Amino acid sequence: MSENGYPKYNAILKNNKPIIMERKSLLSPWVNITHLRYNIEKLLFLDNNRDFNYLQCVVELYELILVMELRSNCKRIRFDGKLVWHITKRNNFPKYLLFDLENNNIFLLLRDSELRKLDLPGDNRNTNSIDRKLIEDIKRKLNKGIKQTKQREICPKPIPTHDNLSHSEHTESTPNFSPVSHSTINSRSESASESPLSVSTVDDLMSENSIVESCKMCESLEELFLVRIDVMRESFRNIINHLLGLDGQVIRGNGYKLLISGYNFYYNFDPNVICDEIKHCETVLYRAKPGKYPKSLIFYKKLNLTIVEFEDKFSLFSVKYGEFTVEHCEIPPIKLYFRHSNGEFIPLTSDQYSVKLSIIGGLQFVFTVSEGTKCTMVRMGFELVWMMRKSTRNKSDTIKKVIYNLTDKTISILTDTLFKCVEANGNWYVRYKELSHITHYTEERGNLVLIDRNELIITSSSRGKYLINYETGMRCVQIRHYDRVIWTKKINETYPKGLEYKVMTKSKKFILQFEDKFVVSTLEQGELTEKEYKLPELGLYTRNGQTGTGVKLNKSDFTVKLDIFKDPKFIYSTNFGVKFYGLSYMNELFIYLKPGQNSFLHVICSQNRELQVIFKDKITLFKYIKDEWKEKVYLIPREITLYTRNPEGATVLLDTGDYRVELRDLRRLKYIINDNVSCSELRYEDDVIWTCGTGDKFINSLYVNKRNITINTGTKIIHYKLNYKGKWTQC
């Protein structure tokens, strides 16, 4: 190294591999010289039983020395296929491999403490030694464990900020929480220009679009890319900009974690660290009182705003008229609970959720439930705000976030659905709910652009099903469930026409409809699977009113749905004013009704070459058996009638267009009520079998065979049996 201290070197670990930067003078930039150093991927460690490489080692940086802990008994080492070391003394195996990144030398530290340099190809250096003082320091650290780092017991020095901070710009840059590997950064620099801010990292960072979008994107800092700093004298911002070249990285400092995102600085103090003073330039924002120490701090540079977190409140320090003002926000008495298997509600402990203050969309407290923790009820003090029903279809669903808005005093509860709750007369009510965790993206100039939820046509039913229509010219190219990409448009693939989202007991299904196919993505226990179903070669025909000849229908004249219950099948139904009089299937089966015959309502086509043609009073089943089509007719019982109630409370008979009857298991008929229809009563020959009482749900579906009826309301199953007296009794 020259007299002026240059060149200087810095290194980081990325994916357990070193990246080395060099700076030759004060005015020169940092240059990546990793390609001028040995590639550790070419190292192969061998013993009698197995071979292993750096991926099976514990890798750490100590200043500019890369250390690999060899946990197996290594007897030989190869580099790029060439033998560069072998054991010469019995049981004198290497404990550590030391890679001097500055001088490009690799040493072995053997069990007898001997340091031996590897003879590697292309090594023209005369350096056969390594900084002995540094090695002794490394040895001491290694003896304590390679994963330990020294932490000071005091809060780091506040940063002196010299910029003119403007509070007229109300923009934030939210970090991108991309998954990156564990990293380490170290420096041998001699100069000192800046120290890190004494501010803390907030676990959940709010998106600038909305608090709801942030709920899907933010993650715990423990899961982010960590950078451990042991020696840091170089300009802190320069190190970040030149070595990482990225925003949104979490830095591990002495006593805190720091995340820099654009002009925002997020700090989180270690639990054993006491910070007794916070300064902004020379202005003291906070001087601690006994027992009142901050837990975290956020500094929004463009807003000139500092948020300090304490045990029971958050304090906002902002600049008004050239002076700092402070506003204290007490944490609301929101309590979170989970339901025990015995039915008792147990409050969550403080380590099972976190509380942060967000400035996006006004001041809002965000309660985030830890991953893996079940939460089913929210109370404000002693008042019940919202409780998850025991009968919810998705048994794995849980409350993920609770957001309390300090402006309008509303509470938003995020499960798989967003519930907005308001207080009136001492009670809390759900004002509305929306499907907030599913986001849709279109493409503009090669970039993904979020589709405004207000542009989507979304209809929902009480059966855990949501329908989203894209046929309004919307070009959807990607769909996400929280941050999980569910579907992305492939090259030459058409745009989807719609999405059916179904919440099942153990899974969630995303059924995308295209012009010629359906794509079903299933999310179950974190695993995503995808299956494609091509539409069958089925043609549908109506009748020319004047000539009586058959006319093939366009795709706009009927609807097609995919039913994935048991064996997948396609359901064809007429649109309003259109009638089915004929069909063709795979150029093999042709059906055309004679004049005077009633039209059919639906066609169900199964993948096992089976067709159900459904009329008002019967179902004709066509099945391909032994190279020919067999036909059988099943009558729909006239005795069974379904009813609803009009706004005046009167009972009204449902029309056949309000439900669908289909054949199941060749022995039962299934009645399926349309999503927009409420079926409140079932009769048999004008005798009421079941009627919807107070607190009951409407009928979703029912099964009928000769002597049994099974009613499904979505929350319970009710069985009826025909006794020997001809009466239906519940059993």
3D architecture notes:
It contains 3 helices and 63 strands. It is mainly beta and 731 residues long. Among the domains are: 37-144, no CATH class; 334-434, no CATH class; 438-534, no CATH class; 538-635, no CATH class; 640-730, no CATH class. Strand 52 (618-625) and strand 53 form a beta hairpin. The termini are far apart.
Number of strands: 63
Give the low-pLDDT segments.
Answer: 146-249
Name the beta content range: over 45%
Give the biggest beta sheet.
12 strands, mixed
Helix content: under 10%
Number of helices: 3
Q: What Rg do the Cα atoms give?
A: 34 Å
Judged by helices, strands and strand pairing, the structural class is mainly beta
Q: N-to-C terminal Cα separation, in Å?
A: 91 Å
Q: In which order are the strands of the major sheet placed?
A: 3-2-1-13-14-15-16-17-20-21-22-23
Average pLDDT confidence is 78
Q: What would the principal axes of the Cα set say about the shape?
A: extended
Oligomer: single chain
Helix and strand topology:
Layout: E1 8-14, E2 17-23, E3 31-32, E4 43-46, E5 51-52, E6 58-62, E7 65-69, E8 76-79, E9 82-86, E10 94-100, E11 105-110, E12 115-117, H1 132-144, E13 183-187, H2 211-217, E14 226-229, H3 236-244, E15 249-253, E16 256-261, E17 264-269, E18 277-280, E19 283-287, E20 296-300, E21 305-309, E22 313-320, E23 323-330, E24 334-339, E25 345-347, E26 353-358, E27 364-369, E28 377-380, E29 383-387, E30 401-405, E31 411-414, E32 418-424, E33 427-434, E34 438-444, E35 447-450, E36 457-461, E37 465-469, E38 478-481, E39 484-488, E40 498-503, E41 508-513, E42 517-524, E43 527-534, E44 538-543, E45 550-552, E46 558-563, E47 569-574, E48 582-585, E49 589-592, E50 602-606, E51 610-614, E52 618-625, E53 628-635, E54 640-645, E55 651-653, E56 659-664, E57 668-673, E58 681-684, E59 687-691, E60 701-704, E61 708-712, E62 717-722, E63 728-730
